[in-house]
Specification:
The protein is mainly α. It contains 22 helices and no strands. It folds into 2 domains: 244 residues, no CATH class; 234 residues, no CATH class.
Length: 531
């Protein structure tokens, strides 16, 4: 018998996917393009440090890319098999838990690993330009590979114990976000360097020669690596034991006594908009969101008090705020994409369109559900950020530091908040449109994040756009919001029922060349008959 037969089968299948090839091509093209932009503009202003700047920009863009790629490819890999009922067929054979887990893991990680490998030549260009040693380059590559492996294994583990797609994605985001974002924030806020070795971010941070520590770097490599293998071992052990529906889950269909507050909320939502109630039934999302935002706000407040207005701590808090804003915008995009994509895949969207509900009411119900889920935590986050900035300005005023820094801080905070709010509106609308037109929720989420959040950010990073970057970020959010809103209002019904239409044949395929046409066979007539 072939060793790990599932790995061989899954790799053969994944080799036929077009995305296996074009994702790495796109990754290589973007990395090379960014390196070219940096080389073109930074070499004029500071030629001596162009290599260091280029490696820093490419590294900071590559880290969130590999983390998101791991989440995107593995968060729903095994839970999808559970929902479709195909996982039980695999366990009717002689396959073990590690056969299935490793098969799905290698197949899911193939595209991500190839994309990272395609970026390595661009990451090596700074070594040729000077200012960067070969050791720094290889430490960065090793840190990125380790972060990708950690993200892939964490997603596989969560997917092995989950069945619902929404919960699998949320739990994977929470688990990876805790290790990549929360732990570094706690290290800075509470001065706990002992925790830094558990985060893959630490190895990425220490790869620079000015911050390098051999003990800290290699501890941040092997500890997350051991955790990654632990995720795989737990997934292999638990999957054969949890793939079946439990008795409690099978009894969910039985009528149960509904709590009084749940009945009141249901009546209130149904009176306003039935789509609001239909989309807002997943209450665990709201609890997790409040917990995450509260922990982050508490950590930021403690870190601010401990730093006593330190410029380094202030810069760290601002960078953490931007990262948190992007993470929450991604969460909003996921919720917006998933609702319509799930309704379309299950056929519920066609049932909704057969009711007297107009399209505007369906869209309004989705907006109400998103507002109920995210409004409270976002108000808390923005309030804490404003309080921290007010505290920083008060400290500067007590030290007679001048008004220049205070004015600049207020401008930076104001831009970040406007950018954050507009991004939330943009990803909500674009996510709903792509969720309606994409085959899978993961495809819709990827399109939304890449087009609305990532590509405009890459444009702003380009030195040629530094002067107009804030205006571009605000303008792109308004443009995306307007475009998606227009699409939803005008083409909602067509997009929701498009899979039932006759496939559109391009004009260049409707008529075969004369040398290929058989006598008495008219391609146009056959095409019209098929229509």
């Amino acid at each position: 018998m072939t060793f790990l037969p599932m790995v061989e089968r899954e790799l053969r299948e994944r080799a036929r996917w077009r995305s296996t090839y074009w994702v790495r091509g796109v990754a290589a093209f973007l990395a090379t393009g960014i390196a070219g932009f940096v080389l073109m503009f930074v070499s004029v202003t500071s030629p001596g440090s162009v290599g260091k700047i280029m490696l820093g920009i490419l590294g900071w863009l590559a880290l969130p890319f590999v983390v998101f790629e791991g989440l995107r490819n593995t968060a729903d890999s095994l839970s999808q098999e559970k929902r479709e009922g195909t996982l039980g067929l695999l366990f009717l054979t002689d396959l073990k838990g590690y056969d299935v887990v490793l098969g799905k893991f290698f197949a899911s990680s193939l595209t991500s690993f190839y994309a990272l490998m395609a970026m390595i030549p661009a990451l090596a260009v700074p070594v040729l330009l000077g200012g960067v040693t070969g050791a720094e380059f290889w430490r960065l590559v090793l840190g990125l590979v380790n972060a990708l492996f950690f993200s892939l294994t964490a997603g596989t583990f969560v997917s092995s114990i989950s069945r619902d797609e929404r919960r699998a994605w949320s739990a994977t985001f929470a688990l990876v976000g805790f290790f990549v974002i929360i732990i570094p924030a706690l290290v800075i806020a509470l001065q706990l360097p002992q925790l830094s070795a558990f985060s893959p971010f630490t190895a990425f941070w220490l790869q620079d020669a000015t911050r390098y520590s051999a003990t800290g770097y290699w501890n941040a490599i092997w500890i997350p690596h051991v955790l990654s293998w632990t995720w795989l071992a737990l997934a292999s052990f638990l999957l054969p034991r949890v793939w079946q529906e439990s008795g409690a889950r099978r009894r969910q269909g039985r009528p149960a006594r509904e709590p009084q507050h749940a009945r009141r909320n249901r009546s209130r939502m149904l009176a306003v908009n039935p789509i609001w109630w239909l989309t807002s039934r997943h209450t665990h999302q709201r609890v997790w969101l409040w917990i995450i935002v509260s922990v982050v706000c508490l950590s930021g407040g403690l870190g601010f008090l401990a730093a006593q207005g330190s410029p380094v701590a202030l810069g760290t808090l601002l960078a953490a705020a931007v990262v948190l804003h992007l993470a929450l915008a991604t969460w909003v995009a996921f919720e917006a994409c998933h609702s319509f994509a799930e309704a379309r895949s299950t056929g519920a969207m066609e049932l909704l369109l057969s009711t007297p509900l107009p399209v505007r009411q369906i869209l309004r119900g989705q907006h109400l559900a998103l507002r109920e889920l995210f409004l409270g935590p976002m108000v808390l986050l923005v309030s804490v950020e404003i309080c921290l900035v007010a505290g920083q300005i008060t400290m500067w005023a007590s030290r007679n530091s001048g008004l220049g820094g205070s004015i600049m801080l207020v401008l930076v905070l104001g831009f970040c908040l406007v950018w954050f709010v507009l991004d939330l509106f943009a990803v909500a609308e674009v996510g709903m449109w792509y969720g309606l037109t994409s085959q899978k929720p993961t495809q819709a989420l990827t399109k939304t994040v890449v087009f609305v959040l990532v590509l405009p950010l890459l444009l702003v990073v380009a030195p040629c756009c530094w002067g107009v970057g804030p205006g571009l970020m605000v303008a792109k959010s308004v443009i995306f919001f307007t475009w998606a809103q227009s699409k939803l209002e005008k083409e909602f019904r067509r997009a929701a029922t498009e899979r039932y239409d006759f496939p559109v044949v391009p004009k260049w395929l409707r008529r075969a060349p004369k040398k290929l046409r058989m006598p008495g066979n008219d391609a146009d007539e056959n095409y019209e008959l098929l229509r």
